């Protein structure tokens, strides 16, 4: 039987050699500023680290090898409501694979899902049950990767509308599953809010509320609140560390993306520095980024941003999340009615929370829990912000645990794991 995807024309990734030559030229021509006193990274990305990566990117990095690895999967580029969407696909291998769409975050790319896509599509090849197979769709978010250019007003809840049309109209699925992390978790949460009846369920990393970017001071991670007096030293240090991770990221990208974008879009070294700092600070790497990403892996993600001309449009989504604030499409509770699985990692625990068990209890006692119809919550002691990249086996297990009962008779009794 012919499926909707059979009617699409594959579009393998094939970056022109002229684009790569221009990239190498710009890298070699980098105008380096003074960076005295920053050997410890206290002023930002240490220049010695950045220079090493830039030199390797210009002289040794092999994009064509990365391209071949990506093209081992199916790639398509389609128009959905006038929005250009690139997606990667791995057909499911099993008796009845479930359609699953995976949404990445920032500064992620679609390739951050590369460590889980094979396990999800063909579990039997990894010693699993073929009944757990998914037909895996991995798009580049509009304005990211190769889903460029995009509309200037694109944000997370508008992306959810694009995803739903992609899955139901373009690809012809009556129901599907969805999962995501970071901004992709908000996209996925919006799917679970607006389109719950057409989803089997969702699985997300973290569990932000959908109004996270609403308000006059959404760019301030603290919400303008002062540090409470009398906090134990450990909690105060943890709170400041969290603020340092996100303050410049949220403020710059939400308040002035068009000021930042020209420099990042003109200088690959500048672009790499901006996104590298997030990979360094947000991953669970014990102070060594290369325990999470190899040089080639870092530069593959960076090259996707560069060759897709995506850095400017990707950072603008932050401003648009605030400029076009989320509003509910219904007033029922929970707001996210789709059955939801959640993965937490201890690296992102808030101040005063030390273990996965404490993180789960804290979430269940918070007002955030009431947003979700949660059926499976898991915490892990290792892994950082890039969960499916950093702990792919655990993420895959968590997701399967969420969806197994939902694809049959879904129970309402939630499960908590640590």
From TrEMBL:
The active site is at residues 182, 318, 385. PANTHER family: EPOXIDE HYDROLASE, EPOXIDE HYDROLASE 1-RELATED. Residues 9-112 form the Epoxide hydrolase N-terminal domain. Pfam families: EHN. Keywords: Aromatic hydrocarbons catabolism, Hydrolase. Belongs to the peptidase S33 family. This is Epoxide hydrolase family protein. GO terms for biological process: epoxide metabolic process. Transmembrane segments: none annotated. It comes from the Bacteria. GO terms for molecular function: epoxide hydrolase activity.
């Amino acid at each position: 039987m012919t499926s909707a995807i059979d009617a699409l024309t594959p579009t393998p990734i094939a970056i022109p050699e002229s684009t790569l030559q221009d990239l190498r030229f710009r890298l070699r021509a980098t105008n380096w500023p003074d960076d005295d006193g920053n050997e410890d990274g206290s002023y930002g990305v240490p220049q010695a680290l950045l220079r090493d990566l830039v030199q390797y990117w210009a002289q040794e990095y092999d994009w064509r090898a990365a391209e071949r690895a990506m093209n081992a999967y199916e790639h398509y580029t389609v128009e959905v409501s006038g929005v250009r969407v690139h997606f990667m696909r791995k057909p499911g291998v099993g008796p009845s694979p479930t359609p699953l769409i995976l949404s990445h975050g920032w500064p992620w790319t679609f390739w951050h899902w590369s460590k889980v896509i094979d396990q999800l599509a063909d579990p039997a090849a990894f010693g699993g049950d073929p009944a757990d197979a998914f037909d895996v769709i991995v798009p580049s978010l509009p304005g990211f990767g190769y889903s460029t250019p995009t509309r200037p007003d694109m944000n997370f809840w508008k992306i959810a509308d694009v995803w739903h049309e992609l899955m139901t109209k373009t690809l012809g699925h009556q129901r599907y599953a969805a999962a995501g992390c970071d901004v992709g978790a908000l996209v996925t949460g919006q799917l679970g809010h607006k389109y719950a009846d057409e989803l089997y369920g969702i699985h997300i990393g973290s569990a932000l509320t959908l109004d996270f970017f609403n308000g006059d001071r959404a760019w301030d991670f603290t919400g303008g609140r002062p540090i409470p007096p009398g906090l134990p030293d450990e909690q105060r240090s943890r709170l400041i560390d969290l603020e340092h991770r996100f303050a410049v990221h949220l403020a710059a990208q939400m308040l002035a993306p068009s000021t930042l974008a020209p420099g990042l879009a003109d200088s690959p070294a500048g672009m790499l520095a901006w996104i590298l700092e997030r990979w360094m600070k947000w991953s669970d790497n014990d102070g060594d980024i290369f325990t999470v990403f190899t040089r080639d892996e870092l530069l593959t993600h960076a090259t996707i941003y560069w060759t897709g001309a995506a850095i400017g449009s990707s950072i603008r989504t932050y401003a648009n999340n605030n400029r076009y604030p989320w509003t509910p499409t219904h007033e029922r509770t929970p707001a996210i009615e789709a059955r939801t699985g959640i993965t937490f990692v201890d690296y992102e625990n808030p101040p005063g929370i030390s273990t996965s068990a404490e993180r789960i209890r804290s979430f269940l006692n918070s007002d955030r829990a009431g947003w979700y119809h949660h059926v499976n919550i898991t915490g892990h002691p290792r892994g950082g912000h890039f969960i499916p990249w950093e702990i792919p086996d655990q993420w895959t297990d968590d997701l399967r645990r969420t969806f197994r009962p939902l694809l049959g008779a879904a129970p309402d009794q939630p499960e908590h794991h640590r």
